[in-house]
Amino acid sequence: MPASGEHHPAFEEYCECIFELHEDDVDVINARIADRLQVSRQAVGEMIRRLEAEQLVSTADGSIVLTDRGLVLAQRVVRRHRLAERFLTDMLGLSWAEAHHEAGKWEHIMSDSVEQAMDRVLGSPTTCPHGNPIPGSPYDAPASRPLSTIAVGQRFVVNRIPEELEFTPGLLEFLEQSSITPGNDGVLAAASPDGTLTVSMQGATIGLSAFASARILVTA
Questions:
Q1: What are the DSSP calls for 40-94, one per residue?
Q2: Residue 183 gets which letter from DSSP?
Q3: How far apart are CA 167 and CA 132, in angstroms?
Q4: Which of 94, 121, 133, 199 would be a feasible disulfide site paired with 99, CB 3.0-4.6 Å?
C-alpha cells in the first residue's frame, strides 16, 4: 500500500499518462488513455471517475484535465521516471528501451532522498535521455519543429523524442541504434509523398515512417 500522503500507483500512472498526452499535444480523451495504457475504455472511464472523486482530475468542461493536486502528483512521477531513465542509461549503460521499462517501476517507489541523491549524482540534468524535460529542472526549450517540416537537403539537430514514440513497440530501440538521438545532427536526404523520410545520420542512411517523422522534434 502507498505510504501516508502518497497515492496508489494506478492513480500515479493515470495522472502521468494525462500529463504526457497533454505535453505531446495529444487529445486527452478516454480512447487515447486506453491506447497508451493498454487497457479497455471501460476501465479508463471507471478510473477517471475515481480520480475525479479524489480531486486529481476534472471533467467539468467535457475534457480530462489535471487539477492542481493532480498536476503536482503527475510532475513528481514524471520527474522520477525521467531521472531514473537518465541514471539507468548514463550510469548503468542500459539501452533506451530497457531504461524506459525499468523507470516505469522506479517512479512509483523512489523516495524523496533517493530522488535528490540521483539528481545530485547526475549533475541536475534538465532532460531525460530522449530530450523530454524533467519537471522541476531549469529546462530551456529550444525552438523545435517536427522533422517532417524540414526541407530536403537541409541539416537538422535532433532535440526530442516525444513520449508518444516511446510507447510505439520497437521504435526506441530503432531510433537509438540509428543514432537518431538528442544532440546528433543529420541531413534530410529524401521525402516520399506518403510522408516517409530518408535521413543521413552518422554516415548511415535511415528510413523513417510518416508517424515518427511527424513527431521527432528537431532544430533546423
A1: -HHHHHHHHHHHHHTTSEE-TTSS-EE-HHHHHHHHHHHHHHHHHHHHHHHTT--
A2: T
A3: 14
A4: 94
Beta carbons within 10 angstroms of residue 9's beta carbon: 14
CATH number for the domain whose boundaries are 145-219:
2.30.30.90
Ranges for all domains in the chain classified under CATH 2.30.30.90: 145-219
Q: Which position has the higher pLDDT, 197 or 167? A: 197
Contact 172, 100 (CB under 8 A): yes
The DSSP secondary structure of 131-161, one letter per residue, reads S-B-TTS-------EEGGGSPTT-EEEEEE-
Model pLDDT for residues 104-129, shown as the tens digit of each residue? 999 999 999 999 999 999 999 999 99
What kind and span of H or E run contains 20? helix 9-23
pTM: 0.91
Residues in Cβ contact with 206 at an 8 Å cutoff, skipping those fewer than 6 apart:
178, 180, 198, 199, 200
Decide yes or no: CATH 1.10.10.10 for domain 9-70: yes
User: Residue 57 forms beta bridges with which residues?
Assistant: 66
Cite the residue boundaries of each domain of the chain with CATH code 1.10.10.10.
9-70
